[in-house]
Amino acid sequence: MARSRRLVLSPPDDVWALLADGRRYGEWVTGTRAVLAVDPDWPGVGARLRVRVGAGPLSLEDTVVVRICEPGRRLELEARAEPFGAARIAMRLLPWGGHTLFTLDWHPLRGPGTRMHGLPVDYLVAVRNGMMLTKFARIAVGETRG
User: Fold this and answer.
1) pTM of the complete model beyond 0.85
2) In angstroms, rounded to a whole number, what is the distance separating the alpha carbons of residues 92 and 133?
3) Residues 116, 122, 123, 129: is their CA dihedral positive or negative?
4) CB 80, CB 86: distance < 8 Å
5) Do the beta carbons of residue 50 and residue 65 sit within 8 Å?
6) What is the pLDDT of residues 5-27, one digit of tens each?
7) Pure H helices in the chain
8) How far apart are CA 138 and CA 101, in angstroms?
């Protein structure tokens, strides 16, 4: 499992508002090229996002399904990118002195990622997720101040 943390200098309600807006997923999730569809009850349990992901000239459609939602505190997703498998993405928000500690855990569920799981892959995912949380924090802080 790759774990990343970031102190976001915004209150938890503002951080949750950005996290819970499925249309904005592509603004902060590294590798997302476009959000193609968002279920109207996002981020309710079972709701889905359909996104296009990729790097360089390669892209594919991905489905993201909400598995656990505790508004304002916790969101757990299953990201599926066939034929590459699926991963669990668990996000938790903790109030921290008027700001928010954002924790993101990533773990492969099935597919090739489960066989490659370990220190090198977890390190690369942690770097990617750290960059993603930095981008998320910039957006959230900009909106809090805006």
Assistant:
1) yes
2) 12
3) positive
4) yes
5) no
6) 999 999 999 999 999 999 999 99
7) 12-19, 25-28, 112-116, 119-145
8) 14
Q: Collapse the DSSP code of 105 into the 3-class scheme (helix H, G, I; strand E, B; otherwise coil) and give the result.
A: strand
Chain segment 115-132, per-residue pLDDT in tens: 565 667 677 778 888 888
> What's the one-letter identity of residue 109?
L
Of 37, 32, 33, 31, the closest CA to residue 49 belongs to 37
Two tokens, residue 40: 């109207």
Beta pairing class for 86-96 and 48-55: unpaired
Quote the CA–CA distance of 137 and 146 in Å, as a whole number. Answer: 14
Is the backbone peptide bond immediately before 83 cis, with ω within 30 degrees of 0? yes
Give the per-residue pLDDT at 49: 96
| 8 Å CB contact between 25 and 49 | yes
Six-digit token string for 13: 């309600």
Torsion angle defined by CA atoms of residues 128, 131, 132 and 136, in that order, rounded to the nearest 10 degrees: 170
The residue type found at 67 is R
Beta bridge partners of 4: 104
Is the dihedral angle over the CA atoms 78, 109, 5, 53 positive or is it negative? negative
Is the model's pLDDT at 114 over the cut of 60? no
Phi, psi of 3 (to 5 degrees): -120, 135
